[in-house]
Amino acid sequence: KPRCQYLAVLNDIEAKRKYFAKVEFRHENRACNFDAHNLAKFASTLQEERYLWLSNPPCNMNRNVNVDGNK
């Protein structure tokens, strides 16, 4: 197992994957996931608290973000 700063997240995913019939992991490079990358980068600059963004996402995201997964 990798020793990295997000090892706890990987362990949590591994523990919970047994509850799903099919689990598939894919790497999406930054160019394909530009908005998520920018949002995560922006969020990493905030203090550790809870934040809720309704209708107006922060950091001038240029693309539409599909929050609920419906197309």
Can you offer a commentary on this structure?
There is one protein chain. The protein is an all-alpha fold. It has one domain (1-61). Helices cover 28% and strands 0% of the residues. It has 2 helices and no strands. The chain is extended.
Strand content: under 5%
Q: N- to C-terminal separation?
A: 36 Å
> Measured on Cα atoms, how large is the radius of gyration?
15 Å
Can you give the helix content as a percent range? 25-40%
Total strands = 0
Which of globular, elongated, flat, extended, rod-shaped describes the shape? extended
Structural class, please?
mainly alpha
Overall mean confidence score, pLDDT? 76
Number of domains: 1
Order of helices and strands: HH
The description of the largest β-sheet is: none
- Helical segment tally? 2
Organism: Oryza glaberrima (African rice)
Protein name: RNase H type-1 domain-containing protein
Secondary structure layout plus pairing:
Elements: H1 7-16, H2 34-43
Task: Describe the structure concisely for a colleague.
The chain has 71 residues and is mainly alpha-helical. It has helices at 7-16, 34-43.
Which characteristics define this entry?
single chain; 71 residues; mainly alpha; 2 helices
